[in-house]
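F.,

This is the one I mentioned.
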């Protein structure tokens, strides 16, 4: 897979972040672009969690605004 293939594909298999499930055993879960698009991620035990993104302003931009 080349670098430009990342932009051509739908990106569903690209891991963005690893999180911890709230399900039994709290296993680590890879959050992919596809999971973000669906808004849900399923861990290895079958527990489904919602994917929520928080966007924030950087401290530098926040200082300029104030």
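My design for it:
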């Amino acid at each position: 897979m080349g670098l430009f293939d990342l932009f051509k594909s739908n990106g569903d298999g690209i891991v963005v972040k690893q999180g911890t499930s709230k399900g039994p055993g709290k296993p680590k879960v890879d959050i992919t672009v596809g999971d973000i698009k669906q808004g849900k991620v399923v861990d290895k035990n079958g527990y489904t969690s919602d994917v929520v993104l928080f966007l924030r302003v950087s401290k530098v931009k926040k200082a300029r605004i104030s």
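The two ends are 45 Å apart (CA to CA).

Talk soon.
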